Amino acid sequence: MPKPGSRLRLVDVAERAGVSLATASRALSGRDGVSEEVADRVRRVSQELGYVANPYARTLAGGASSTVGLVVHQVDDPYFSEIAGGVIEVAAEQGLLVQICHSGRDPHFELRQIRHLIAQRVGIILIAGSGYTDTRVEAETKAELSAYQSLGGRVAVIGRHSLGADAVLPDNEAGGRALAEHLLALGHRRIAVAAGTPGLTTVTDRLAGVASALRGHGLDLAELPVVHTDFTREGGRVAAERILGDHPGTTAVIALNDAMAMGVLAVLRARRISVPERVSVVGFDDVSVAADLAPSLTTVRLPMTEMGRTALALALKPRSNRPRRRPTGHTLVVRDSTGPAPA
Amino acid sequence: MPKPGSRLRLVDVAERAGVSLATASRALSGRDGVSEEVADRVRRVSQELGYVANPYARTLAGGASSTVGLVVHQVDDPYFSEIAGGVIEVAAEQGLLVQICHSGRDPHFELRQIRHLIAQRVGIILIAGSGYTDTRVEAETKAELSAYQSLGGRVAVIGRHSLGADAVLPDNEAGGRALAEHLLALGHRRIAVAAGTPGLTTVTDRLAGVASALRGHGLDLAELPVVHTDFTREGGRVAAERILGDHPGTTAVIALNDAMAMGVLAVLRARRISVPERVSVVGFDDVSVAADLAPSLTTVRLPMTEMGRTALALALKPRSNRPRRRPTGHTLVVRDSTGPAPA
DNA sequence: CTAGAGTACGAAAGCGCTTTCGCAAGCGCT
DNA sequence: AGCGCTTGCGAAAGCGCTTTCGTACTCTAG
Fold first, then answer.
1. pTM for this one?
2. Per CATH, which fold does B10-53 belong to?
3. Which residue of A65, A76, A99 to mutate against B (max B Cβ within 10 Å)?
4. What are the HTH lacI-type domain coordinates in residue numbering (chains A, B) (predicted)?
């Protein structure tokens, strides 16, 4: 920790500009009550000297806290690191720090992380990733966040609608529907689903979309194999093994995110089942590597980086009383992992 | 920003425990000069009340700053996000914040980021990613960091030996050699290199390893195509196009990182050149998706997550006078993207 | 020419913590 | 009993900023 006295302080700038500490502070933080002329002089001096305010002192004195806490399900999952990229971009523009926390898709752990962030007095909390269907924990989390907001904290969530905060929301149901429609149009009927971590609303929403498309074609999701494992590559592997073992006639697998799709593809490759000739595979999210898998993955694209950017921008804007919702677009990206159902 | 007065302060804890503010502070931060009995009482009360110190006040008052700045070349590159994962893990254990900055592989921008972190008074700075061969900027960066360290700041670098700080160092040269040896053993002679961003020491080191292996087999790297583009997937694409255009007889491509290898594979796939039958491809790093590409990628594994962990652990340990170096192991991982040279 | 309002700035009071300093009590020693 | 030591604790001085409050000065109105 740099020793005191060693760094430029606001007094130094003030002195050099021939004004008081108070005036210098006002000038630099854009408060009014300072003549344009003086304000200009202070800013110039500060620039020349390379002054940067001590964020700890600033926050302690009651200024806005300059750190934003970002809670994600899994830091090294590309879905979340792309979101983080967007958040960091905006934060850098605004001179904000970003503190990233990992919740491991455990609602209790997530709540702990949020409580910790609040105790740390971060000014903004961003929560990325699916909500939980366990309404008890979810309600507790929501209560915690409400208290935080009523104290002036700012919150935005990404891909979650249950926390009573501003939200950036992809339409998971429509995405799921698009995926299923695509497969149905290709003539697939023996469709299986590799579903993600149980207890996540993303899973239920995407599944609902799939079910609705199926119904439109006279099929019932309840009669098709839906294997719940985990939203990871490993989860995809396990699901694929089970699907192929129990339902060898399957011609298409819907993985509810790209990580799982990668696991599914790995299993098919290992079993030398050709994709898409014998089995078609689709994912969800369009993480950047999806295009590089072989075969390249048909999936629903979510604009992750932009979602991160939007979420922070939303949290930064003065809050109205009602939570705002920013729907995000999604597009079906058809690549080489899907093809006509085999005869 | 939570309003003042709304949160538990240390005085509250002190009062409740029947001791002075000073004693409470000492008890909680483990300073001595407090009897075990009193310290215990304070800790218990603090626990009961759910007290969490205000990090801004703590830092301002001269305690250790609890944030670590992590500078990476590119936030959403899996190589760096895996390193970040390791750093965040250790940071969470220690109750530290992690602030991630993006340098975009530009040494000047990187220096600016570092200066900003220093001005922000972070207590620890971690720098991940290759050094720059431009010794001027590198020296300037080093000087800045030395000043910071002499003021008590802590620094550790990952994959870089030029900054006079504690370092976690993969052996890029040996890795490059292993890759080339592997291809040579398979009978390849017409080898091309898709080299990364010019001006990075990682590029020169890995190349040096390749050159040394080639020499051992009577070949000269200077006579083989080495295309310098950029350490990204797109860079790999461009390099591959050029290599295939100018040297159609090439039987093996060494990409100097996995991202580039992905670009190379994409081009080969587009041109329907089968891998590894006609052309073998190798990468470097073993990012987690390397195993899922098709064909899965032969590469040199670096333990990224562990490197991140080690770097922070190193920075946390009391500093000796000489910079410490932690070499990291690497292993050649042979997968399906390499095979015998075609006759 | 003075009263009242408005504007530009400085002095000083915190924000919540750590740390220095000083005092009081307890100890063994001469 | 008196001395110096050590030990355990409290009072108070900051850390570098923001903000409230007050003062001096200008300007318009009466």
1. 0.84
2. 434 Repressor (Amino-terminal Domain) (1.10.260)
3. A76
4. 8-62
**Substitution target from A6, A10, A29, A56 for chain B, most B beta carbons within 10 A:** A56
Distance CA A1, CA B122 (A): 7
Using the Cβ of B96 and the Cβ atoms of chain A, whether some distance falls under 8 Å is answered with no
Q: Provide the terminal-to-terminal Cα distance of chain A, rounded to the nearest Å.
A: 70
Other beta carbons within 10 Å of A74: 19
- CATH no. for A67-170+305-329: 3.40.50.2300
Q: What is the pLDDT of residue A6?
A: 57
Residues 165-204 of A with CB under 8 A from B: none
Just give the CATH number of A172-302: 3.40.50.2300
Sheet containing strand B226-228, strands side by side: B226-228, B191-195, B252-255, B280-282
Partner residue opposite B55 with nearest CB, options A120, A151, A295: A120
Q: What is the pLDDT of residues B117-176, one digit of tens each?
A: 887 778 899 999 999 999 999 999 999 998 888 877 889 999 998 788 999 999 999 999
CATH assignment, B67-170+305-330: 3.40.50.2300
Q: Between these two residues, B305 and A113, which has the higher pLDDT value?
A: B305
Could you give the percent of chain B with pLDDT greater than 90?
A: 68
In tens, the pLDDT along B306-319 reads 999 999 999 988 76
Task: Spell out the residues 6+ positions from residue A59 whose beta carbon is closer than 8 angstroms to its own.
Answer: A65, A66, A121, A123, B1, B56
Q: Which fold has domain B172-301?
A: Rossmann fold (3.40.50)
Q: Residue A285 — very low, low, confident or very high, per pLDDT cuts 50/70/90?
A: very high
B78 closest CB neighbour out of A78, A89, A269: A78
Q: Is the pLDDT of residue A64 over 70?
A: no
A167 Cβ within 7 A of any nucleic strand D atom: no
- Closest nucleotide (CA of A25 to C1')? D18
B5-62 confidence digits (pLDDT tens): 457 899 999 999 999 999 999 999 888 888 999 999 999 999 899 888 888 898 888 7
Straight-line distance from CA A55 to C1' D19, in Å?
A: 17
Rounded, the Å distance between the CA of B24 and C1' of C22 is 19
Domains in chain B: boundaries: 10-53, 67-170+305-330, 172-301
